[in-house]
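forwarding from the other thread:

> can someone predict this with copper (II) ion?

sure thing
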Amino acid sequence: MNTNRRTFLQLASGSALALTGGNFLQSCMNSMNMGDMSDVVIGSETGLSLRLPPVWNGGAISAGSVNLDVQNTTIQAWAMGGSVLAPTIRLRKGTAFSAQLQNQLSTETNIHWHGLTVPANMDGHPKDVAQAGGSFAYNFPVLDRAGTYWYHPHPHKNTARQTYMGMAGLFIVEDPAEAALGLPSDEFDVPLVLQDKRFQQVKRFVYAPSMADVMTGFLGDTVFVNGVPVPYLDVENGAYRFRILNGATARVMKLGFENGMAFHVIGTDGGLIDAAERVTSVMLSPGERVEILVDFSSVAINGSVLFKTLDFTLPAAPASSTPHGSTSGMTMSNYKQGVAMPIMRFNVKRQTSRQTAIPTTLTPITRLNTAEATKTRTFALNMEMMSFEGGTSPHGSTSGGEMMRHTINGKLFAMERVDEKIAFGATELWEFQNKGDEPHPMHVHGTQFQVLSRSSGTLTAVDKGWKDTVLVNPGETVHVILRFDKYRGLYLVHCHNLEHEDDGMMLNFEVA
Ligand code: C2O
Ligand code: CU
Ligand code: CU
């Protein structure tokens, strides 16, 4: 990354005063103590064994604080269903789902069923919350095809914190078309939820983004897998299906093995793609899922292989893009996108007795037809000097002023404002234009879409099939096609960098 982009904050005269109030300075100093200004130490392998989340038993889902034991330290986390990760909900397509959220936190929360098509009032819009001590009854039919969906809180300006503190779980849908393929199942079908945390110096879960962190996102130093830092899993030398969710608030990952071995992408956000694709790495941004088949037969028995996020350089934004700011102000955090980090080690311990054929065709994807699109909408993703109302936000507590904010079409999120009106049943083309120098994983509620093109080049394996989140790189324009034919009501489109979302990089659209 270009060094002059490391300064981010334009403290225009007049606005500087509001921002240098006591709380802001304090929050900068806290971040310095947490290592913002020193070298980042990347968390290494811990020798802890991978845990699998419990399976949802059909009961109520509580939200509350729990104690986690990590490396002989008790860490306070926030959990749904009493567990970090939250219980995995596994249901067949067509099932009626219902569960009551019981909020035992001292702050409001709710649940968004990320990727599932649910009625607007069940979707976890920030206006629909369970107050502290209250509850919210969720019920909806599972309409979506087999796939790896997930759930997490979505309260106003507090999605990042609650997700970071441990509130997230998988919602796996099964259907007959997928079952017929005979993919690896049971102990060979393993969920891996990846979340980086800023852990090395504090050994606790502390969500305290500085202003610099709100620009880039709160990037961590250690990858947790299913709530365990850099664990291991003993495997046999056969094929495994891994369902991988990037559940980080902000870190884009380039997933691959240290020895460069190939694997197959078989699914993305909305389930299986139509044909397996052989790759040696895959980019996965926050909110996205990828399902891969990994055949460990090339690894010797008693050998092992490390799974990592590899180093990468994000495409540079064009010179005309909005800079983070110019000459004055704090420099950006030392936490960076694109840094190599270990995720987990696979120890090959046993000879398999299973066949390891990779199916060539998977499940057919019905392509939406661009000729049926009745409208094109553009969403310009930007950073702009905007007024900040003061109070508590991801920026810390301030008395208000002007600062760089993340906007869509020049706007910050407003709870009740309808930004886009969509005719029920319509097929539309949406164009996400990244005008800035940060990556934005753009997420749409209420439907799944298909990616048509990237201005930077060809689609990658993770862009294929049905999607609900797509990475839009600096300077890039991504076209998607979508249809709104299941439910009417108010839904959201937002950046799934959760610091950006909480900063206001989110709009309402109404299907009517
Ligand atoms: Cu996973 Cu609106 O978010
Ligand atoms: Cu969502
Ligand atoms: Cu963003």
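Residues 366-511 form a domain with the Immunoglobulin-like fold (CATH 2.60.40.420). thats all i got for now
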